[in-house]
Amino acid sequence: MKKIFALAGLALLSAGSANAQLIAHKDLSVTTAVTIAQTAVQTCKAQGYNVSAHVLGRSGEVLVAMRGDDTGPHTLENSMKKAWTARAQRAPSLNFANAVKANPTVGAIHLSNMVPAQGGLPIMVGMDAVGAVGVSGAPGGDKDEACAKAGIDKVAGDLK
């Protein structure tokens, strides 16, 4: 009887490793990330707003950090946190800001780099979050978000 269980266990073990698979996914190139950040900063600049922008990759790693001309020193950190929040939540950072308004003790508020502020957007390929962009420095998160969206829209044809 012990031999039967041992053989069954061995069969399951070998079947499990035979079915092991690698995960295939797409990642943002640095060229695409630079285009997103430049477009976001330039779009806001054309509207009279000096902003900073961050583009993060799939794992939240910084691909591009761009501090616009004449921006406050806080904008670089804030743009990174907005992007991080959007990537972590796979949703616009505005969603997290609204969640915090509804429940100021929401657990994620205590995580590093999460910020309840509008201006960060996930970068999606279908339902897959491949990164995020965050913008800070315009007079209002809605304007930051619009510039972030302009950056994503600029490369939308490549996000397939």
Task: Give the topology, please.
Blueprint: H1 2-18, H2 30-46, E1 52-57, E2 62-67, H3 74-89, H4 93-102, E3 120-125, E4 128-136, H5 141-154
Antiparallel strand pairs: 1-2, 1-4, 3-4
What does this structure look like?
This protein is α+β, with helices and mostly antiparallel strands. It contains five helices and four strands. The radius of gyration is 21 Å and the shape is globular. It starts with a helix and ends in a 6-residue tail after the last helix. The relative contact order is 0.19.
Gyration radius (Cα, Å) is 21 Å
Biggest sheet statistics? 4 strands, antiparallel
What's the shape?
A: globular
Order of secondary-structure elements: HHEEHHEEH
Q: Hey, roughly how much beta strand do the residues contain?
A: 15-25%
- The residue fraction in helices comes out at 40-55%
Q: Name the quaternary structure.
A: single chain
Low-confidence parts, pLDDT < 50 over ≥5 residues? Answer: none
Provide a count of the helices.
5
Summarize the structure.
The protein has 160 residues and is an alpha+beta fold.
Name its key features.
single chain; 160 residues; alpha+beta; 4-stranded antiparallel beta sheet
